[in-house]
Design a protein that fits this description.
about 110 residues, 60s Ribosomal Protein L30, Chain: A, four-stranded mixed sheet, about 20% strand
């Protein structure tokens, strides 16, 4: 059976995000992301690219200082919330455990 090579597209990121939320351990929202980064438990942070600029700048700065990978989701917070299976907007999420997803191994 041939393996399928991922190309790092938005569909791949969406699939990996959903798997991480369903099978791993994540924290949703600005405050929870900051707590996870400060506690050194976040392995990666995903942020909605079309979100509030002040939140994007704060999280970007904190991730850069902590040396944590930041993944930019090419959509708004409503789309990110939908991907996470939530009926509300999600501007950012921290991934502590990826579960069955390859989100920490792939380049998006």
């Amino acid at each position: 059976m041939a393996s399928i090579k991922k190309d790092g597209s938005l569909a791949d990121l969406t699939n990996d995000l959903r798997l991480a939320v369903d099978t791993g351990k994540v924290s949703l929202g600005y405050r929870e992301v900051l707590k996870a980064v400060n506690a050194d438990s976040a392995k990666a942070v995903v942020i909605a690219e079309k979100g509030r600029k002040d939140i994007i700048e704060d999280i970007s700065h904190v991730c850069k200082v902590a040396g944590i990978r930041m993944i930019s989701y090419k959509g708004g917070s409503l789309e990110l919330g939908t991907v996470c299976g939530r009926p509300y907007s999600v501007n950012s999420l921290a991934i502590m455990e990826p579960g069955n997803s390859n989100i920490l191994k792939e380049q998006y």
